[in-house]
Amino acid sequence: MNNHKTRWVLLVFVVVNLFCFLAQKRYLFTTLKINFLLVVNALLLLMYFFNNIRLSKLDKTNPNAMIRSVMIGTLLKMVVFVSVAMVYTTQIKVPVGMPTLISSMGLYLIYTWMEIKGELIKK
């Protein structure tokens, strides 16, 4: 797993965590819920590695299996993302806010795009 696409994903993870750290220390002004973004970022990184392991065990000769697997991984990531958002909002009982949800969905799209682009490049 020590390849080029994994390095880019780890770079995105570090940059988002650095932004959250600077926002928590009040070096950057933001209205985002930083703890929520940290949880989403860590969860998306874990889901990326889970999907990467799952895709590495896939039959490379069957293109339909690859497409099905990518679609299942994207759906699984979305279900986990939505369920964690619901658990977070019910446990914390503080509204998350639209900017935080939109930035979380942006992170979701970035991680998903990097995962799919990496699989297409591997082919």
Report on this model:
The mean pLDDT is 82. α1 runs antiparallel to α4, α2 (34-56) runs antiparallel to α3 and α2 packs parallel to α4. Helices cover 80% and strands 0% of the residues. By secondary structure, the chain is an all-alpha fold. It is built from four helices and no strands. It has helices at 4-24, 34-56, 63-92, 98-122.
Radius of gyration: 16 Å
Oligomerization state: single chain
Give a count of the beta strands, DSSP E runs of length 2 or more: 0
Distance between the termini: 16 Å
Domain count: the total is 1
Give the helices and strands, then pairings:
Layout: H1 4-24, H2 34-56, H3 63-92, H4 98-122
Helix pairs in contact: 1-2, 1-4, 2-3, 2-4
Properties at a glance:
123 residues; 4 helices; mainly alpha
Task: Summarize this entry quickly.
The chain is mostly helical. It is 80% helix and 0% strand.
